[in-house]
Specification:
It is found in: Cell membrane. Its main location: membrane. Keywords: Cell membrane, Membrane, Transmembrane, Transmembrane helix, Transport. The protein is mainly α.
Length: 263
């Protein structure tokens, strides 16, 4: 009995230590977004202020880098979401020649080291004489994000009840109507999860972006460059807002999932 209580208490302590380890960097980032720093280095607490939220877009280069990152992430989410969902649907629903090789390529792309993928994409763009910049970053992000979307949607498709689609066809629905009204709503949670994963992977990617960015600056690249001269508090504020947006989307998605489950 006593050993069981000690084991339970130890498990609780371990759980809270893991949670603290995960949350502490984010808490520090949020806290120093309110730091009334007087110098260029935002590393020592000097007082509480909201003024950096009012001066969020005061640094033009930082704002442009954030806009580039958000635009690339949204486009990556849309393009990789559509292409990856179609690949996941095909792999989960049909058996065709080359499906095994396609599965292997998908998982190989996920397990591939970023430095390898970044260097290989750079070699490809240089060989084809493609100018490095915004579009090469977008192509790179779509390439490594498609696999994550495809695997997520494929897992969802493999759990579907095909009798619902057969019932729709028996009632006279064509292939497009069956897909639009039956298949797509059932796989939509997987499509949404995969697309959000693509957005998250894109907006914080550094290694592959650094290889293929040319003169285009993204948010992670700007932060890396600014570490040598000191990070302004606006970086903490932007990071806080990105984190808050992610939490908000996750909460809304959870509430919608609970609502669908109770319907």
């Amino acid at each position: 009995m006593k050993r069981g209580l000690l084991r339970g208490r130890g498990l609780q302590i371990y759980t809270w230590l893991v949670i603290a380890w995960l949350v502490l960097p984010i808490a520090v980032m949020i806290l120093f977004g309110f730091n009334d720093t007087k110098g260029r280095y935002n590393t020592a607490w000097q007082g509480f202020t909201f003024k950096w939220y009012g001066k969020l877009f005061e640094i033009g280069d930082l704002t442009q880098a954030l806009v580039n990152s958000l635009l690339i992430a949204v486009l990556t989410m849309l393009i990789a979401g559509v292409l990856g969902s179609l690949i996941g649907l095909a792999l989960g629903r049909y058996r065709f020649r080359g499906s095994g090789a396609m599965n292997l390529v998908m998982f190989a792309a996920i397990s591939c080291a970023e430095i390898v993928m970044g260097a290989s994409l750079l070699s490809l763009f240089v060989t084809l004489a493609v100018p490095l910049g915004f579009w090469t970053i977008l192509i790179s992000h779509v390439m490594f994000s498609i696999s994550f979307v495809a695997v997520t949607v494929r897992a969802r498709v493999m759990t579907l009840d095909s009798s619902l689609e057969e019932a729709a066809r028996d009632l006279g629905a064509g292939p497009w109507t069956t897909f639009r009204l039956v298949t797509l709503p059932m796989i939509f949670p997987g499509v949404l999860a995969g697309s959000m994963l693509a957005f998250a992977l894109s907006i914080d990617d550094f290694v592959i972006t650094n290889f293929n960015s040319g003169g285009t600056m993204t948010f992670p690249l700007w932060i890396w460059g600014a570490t040598r001269v000191g990070l302004p508090p606006q970086v903490n504020v932007m990071g806080t807002l990105i984190f808050a947006a992610g939490v908000l989307i996750a909460v809304v998605n959870a509430l919608l999932a609970r609502r669908r489950a109770n319907a």
